[in-house]
Amino acid sequence: MSDCGCHMEAKNAAERKTLRILLLLNGLMFVVGIVAGIIANSTALVADSLDMLADASVYMISLYAVGKSARDKNRAATLSGIFQITSAMMVVVDVIRRFVWGSSPESGWMMATALLSLIVNSYGLYLLSKHRRGEVHMRASWIFTQNDVIANFSVMIAGFLVTLFNSRFPDLIVGLGIASLVVWGGISIIRDAQHDRKMQKVV
After folding, report:
1. PANTHER family recorded for this chain (predicted)?
2. What is the pLDDT of residues 151-173, one digit of tens each?
3. List of residues 6+ apart from 36 with CB closer than 8 A
4. pTM assigned to the model
5. Between 157 and 72, the higher pLDDT residue
6. How many Å from the N-terminal Cα to the C-terminal Cα in the chain?
7. How far is the CA of 91 from the CAs of 51, 98, 119, in angstroms?
8. Within its chain, how far is the Cα of 76 from the centroid?
9. pLDDT at residue 177 above 60?
10. What is the per-residue pLDDT across 103-135, written as a single tens digit (0 to 9) for each?
11. Which DSSP letter does residue 130 get?
């Protein structure tokens, strides 16, 4: 096997290892987050957990794309963006439901769960840092994990504000904010994939 082939195989193996770890962590945190969101009656936590589920789907798609053609990686990134936007729409529906029917979010559950998610996602971001300038499927994973860290901080702030103002609205506002962040991330990676596709045609 040539040096180039060995380098590529090592690169693919490293990507697979990173994505498998991220897939496992995000799957576990989705379960933790959705249970905590239901117990805490928090739309921000539900939004965060659905984002985790969408990210787990992204990592699974990206894992499939490792070692595949540039076209397959491009399709994987595009599908990842669609998953993100779809999960964000589900969050918007939950925000509207809770706004109409009311909610009483538990700030302690919100902040504790968000802190745990922040630790997990920060570790994920560390693992992805070496791949963040790689091919489009790995750039997608980097973008979405960055958004997760921002979302975790936002939920912690929302929990604090819920207690400070004795109001459910910080929870609803942050839930809507997370949805907007996820939509933007989805659109960004779809645009990135489209740009890659055009560059491939030029080459």
Report:
1. CATION EFFLUX PROTEIN/ ZINC TRANSPORTER, RE54080P-RELATED
2. 899 999 999 999 999 999 999 99
3. 42, 45, 49, 109, 110, 112, 113
4. 0.82
5. 157
6. 27
7. 9, 11, 23
8. 15
9. yes
10. 888 999 999 999 999 999 999 999 988 887 777
11. G
Q: What type of residue is 118?
A: L
Written as six digits, the tokens of 114 are 């968000």
Task: For helices 136-165 and 3-40, give the axis angle rounded to 10 degrees.
Answer: 20
- Positive or negative torsion for Cα 111, 150, 88, 126: negative
Please provide residue 56's backbone torsions phi and psi, each rounded to the nearest 5 degrees: -60, -40
The 10 Å CB-count burial string (b at 16+, else e) for 113-139 is: bbeebbebbeebbebbeebeebbbbbb
